[in-house]
Write a structure and sequence with these properties.
The chain is mainly alpha-helical. It has one domain. The chain is built from four helices and no strands. The longest helix has 29 residues. The radius of gyration is 16 Å and the shape is elongated. The relative contact order is 0.18.
Length: about 130
């Protein structure tokens, strides 16, 4: 999980290829855990709220391009254009639409964003 998360930083400017559902979620779980810890800490430790706000803003800025590139590559894998990632700007409905797409299967054929690689033939992330 940690290596998959770090791998997103290697491809933080790759907006043209594909990322499978499995690789997407392997990379996203650590991000979800970090955000959960920051949010829970903010509400549990009222004395140092500013610290958690600063940490959250810094974390958001550091991971912004790698997260957005991961979203775009996942959208490409399902056959959608990467501009659909801007649906996240639509309150509530946009997030649910993206989650639905992120959980759906890969497009089982080659598309303009790259070749289809079945999960059984894909190289494992070390």
């Amino acid at each position: 999980m940690f290596s998959a998360f770090l791998k997103t930083f290697e491809y933080d400017r790759d907006f043209s290829s594909r990322t499978t559902r499995k690789d997407f979620w392997k990379a996203s779980w650590l991000d979800i855990i970090i955000w959960t810890v920051l949010i829970v800490s903010y509400f549990c430790f009222k004395e140092i709220n500013l610290l958690y706000v600063v940490l959250a803003v810094l974390y958001f800025l550091v991971t912004l391009t790698s997260r957005f590139a991961l979203w775009v590559r996942r959208l490409h894998d399902t056959g959608l254009k990467g501009t659909f990632a801007f649906a996240a700007l639509v309150p509530v409905l946009g997030i649910f639409a993206l989650l639905f797409v992120f959980m759906s299967d890969s497009q089982p054929k080659d598309n303009i964003y790259g070749k289809y690689v079945p999960a059984s033939k894909k190289k494992k992330i070390k």
